[in-house]
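Inputs:
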Amino acid sequence: ELTSEQQGLLHYIMDSYNRQCIPQYITRKLLQEDFSAEENFLLLTEMATSHVQVLVEFTKKLPGFQTLDHEDQIALLKGSAVEAMFLRSAEIFNRKMPHGHADLLEERIRNSGMSNDYITPMFNFYKSLGELKMTQEEYSLLTAVVILTPDRQYIKDKESVEKLQEPLLDVLQKLCQVQHPENPQHFARLLGRLTELRTFNHHHAEMLMSWRVN
Amino acid sequence: PASNLGLEDIIRKALMGNFDD
């Protein structure tokens, strides 16, 4: 069972995770803008920029994050932003939120000049996460775990980051046992997806370059 | 516009600012 302190931590993380939302004026464009590759590229770029800002607001609320060295805060976010955004995108596509937008968003991604070499693995990853039937609690905790990953480049005080990540991993592990009693491997499979997420991190810079050229 | 900023610039600005409102 989760201790009352762990329950409190879980609700706090869930609450700040659910506050994340990209401003209405951007999601409205998703519906209104015309469908040229150029327009889609610009719209997706604007959405990604806004998504990073929303992600930073979530990160600032993570227990203990503001106590970290400022440059380590930057290094953690730089190292995890792409992975955290892929997780959030997987949730959006798998839970079809908000209704109807997900299909339109997928259409725009597929018509934005991005090469299929990157689009196919991206949507395969979303599907593979979908098969895990993750709950909102798991998405929010896994995002917090991804952000507070100590072994990112340029982190000076890894130990402090580890101390912040550990309680979140403990809650996530217990949560998996409680929410997926039929699948004792569920927690291990979640962590396995984090390894796959890292590969996207590496390919992302390459993808951006080829996308801009296209 | 913000979209021309690199990832690090966006992060630095967002850490200092407050995009909640």
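Helices of chain B lie at 7-16. Flag for discussion at group meeting.
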